[in-house]
Amino acid sequence: MKDKMTPMERAKAIAKGEMADRLPCNPNVANGVARIYGCKISEFNQSARIIADAQIASYRRFGYDGVRIFTDLFPWAEAMGAKINFPADNTADLAAPALADIGQIDRLESADPHKDGRLPIHIEAMKYLIDELGEEVSCAGGLVGPFTNAFFLLGIEKMSKLFFTNPEVVHRACQVSLETCIRYAQAILDVGLTPTISEPMSSCTIVGPKHFREFGEPYLKKLVQYINSKGKPVTMHICGKTEKIWEDIVAMGIAGFSVDNVVNLQKCKEQIGDRVKILGHVDPSAVMYAGTPADVREAVIKCVQQAWDSPKGYVIMSGCSLPVETPFGNIEAMMDAAREIGYPIEPIKLEKMLRSSAHA
Amino acid sequence: MSELKQKLILQLADSVVTMNEEMTVELARTYIEAGFNPYEGINQGLARGMDRAGELYEEEEYFIPELLMCSDAMYAGLDVLRPHLKQDKLGEKHKVVIGVVEGDTHDIGKNLVKIMLETLGFEVVDLGRDVPPVDFVEKAKEIEADIIALSTLMTTTMEGMRVVMQLLERDRLRDKIKVMIGGGPISKSFADKIGAYYAEDASKAAKLAQDLVKDLVQEVQQG
Lengths: 360, 223
Hints:
- The complex is a heterodimer.
- Chain A is α/β, with parallel strands linked by helices.
- Chain A is built from 15 helices and ten strands.
- Chain B has two domains: about 90 residues, Methionine synthase domain (Methyltransferase, Methionine Synthase (B12-binding Domains), Chain A, domain 1, Orthogonal Bundle); about 130 residues, Cobalamin-binding domain (Rossmann fold), CATH 3.40.50.
- Helix content of chain B is about 60%, strand content about 10%.
- Classes of the chains: A alpha/beta, B alpha/beta.
- Chains A and B meet through β4, α7 and α12 of A and α4 and α8 of B.
C-alpha cells in the first residue's frame, strides 16, 4: 500500500484537526536499518554518512513517520571514558564503566559533543539526515537521559548498590551526566533536529519509584526543561513498567511518552493522555520479531483500539527498538495495518478488521 | 527442630530480605557455632529470604537495586555456611552452564538464577556475560552439563540464543542438554519458536531446572 501524504503533511494535518490519510506510525527500526541498507552495524561507528544513508534507505522503503540518529545506549558514557564493545555486526555494548573506582569521581568530566568519542559522528549524521529528509519527515537526535547514562559511568550493579551506601557519589555522577546530556541536546538543536530521550534505567522494572525520585527525576527534569526552554518539545521513551512514575514523567513537561508493551495502553491513555501524546506499544519481541504479519496486524489494531482517542494524540509504535533481525515483512505489515485502518478512526471498522483477522 | 535453630533460620531469611549483610553473616556464624545443619540454613533460611525478596519484586515493592543488596547479604551468608556442607548429602550433582548471551553485559538476572540454582544443589559453571554461543555448547560438552541457561536483557542479542540451539542440533545434543532462557525481552512464544524452555524469573528458573533434570532422568530410564 502507498501513502497519500508525507509524514510531515500528515503530522501537520492531524495537529490542525484536518483530514489525514492515516495515523502516524513508527516501527522503531533502530540498527535493523543496516539490514535494509546492506552494511555491517559496526560501520555506524566510523561513518556519519553510512548512519544517515541507512536511516534514509529504511525510511524510503517503509515510509514510517519518524527517523532518528541513535545507534546504541553508550556513546555518551564512551565519550566520558567508558569502554565499549563493538561487535562486527551487532549493537555496541558496555564493556567497562567510565570509573573503575568511585574514588575517582572528581575526575569525571562532561563530554564535548564535537570532540569526544563517536558523538561528532552522530552530530554529522544528523546534518545529512535533515538535509535529505527534513522537508518530509520529522528528524530526531536520540540521547539517553542523565540517570541512565550515570549507570554506565559508575557500573550498573555498583550504582544500584550506591543508592544505599553512598548516595552522594550517585548524585555527583548524575550531575556530570546531565551536563553531557545538555551539551549534546544543544548540539542536536543546533543542527535543527528534535532531541528524544531514552531512559531505560528509570523503568520500574529496574529501579523503584523511590530511587527514581531521589536520583533520576531531578536530573531528567532539568534536561527536559532545558530542551523546552529552547522551544522544542520532548518525546521520552522508558522501557518496561512505568505506571508508578507516569505522573512524575508528565510533570517534567514532556510532549510525548513512548511506552513499552508491558504497560496497559488504555490505562496510560486514560491517566495521562490528556497531557501528553502517547506512542506505543506493539510487542517488539513476541509480535514484531517472532510473530507473523497477521499477528502484527492484529496487534496494531488492538493498540489503536485502546489509544486512538487519546486527547493529545496517538502514534502507532513498537514498545521498544526492534530487534535487528526483525523480518521486513512484519515491519511492512505494521505500516500496512496503519494504512488499512485509515483516518479518522472508526471503532466499528477496527472491530470488523479484528473479526476478519480471527477468521483468516 | 530446636527453638533456637528455628529462630535463627527465620532471622537468616529476614536479614536477607532486609538487605542486612552484616547481620546475615553474624547469624550464619551463630548458627554454625551452635552446630546446626548448614544445608537447612541455606535452603530454609537464606534461600527463603531470597524467595521472599523475589516475591517483593513481583509485587513491585522491591526492584533490582534491592534484589542486588539482598543477594549480597545472601552471598555473605553462603560464604559462612557453604564450607560446612557435606557434599555427599546432596546426592549426585546436576550441572548447569549459565551465562549472558554475546552482545549483552547485563548480568543481574543471570546472577540471581545462579544463586537459586546453587542453593538447590546444582553445580553451576558461570561463563559470565557477553558469551559467544559456541562457548556455551563447548563448555556444556566438556563438563557433561544437563542444562544450558541463557539470559539476556537486550532484544538485540536474542539471535544468539537461536544459534546455541542450532549448535546443539548440529552436534545431536538436543536430547541430552536442555536449554532454558529468560530475561526482559524473552517471551514464551520466542522460547517455543527456537525450541528452548522459558523461565519467567529467577525462582521459576530454578524450579524449571529441577523439573528438566527429572525429565532427563526419566528419559534415560525409559530409554
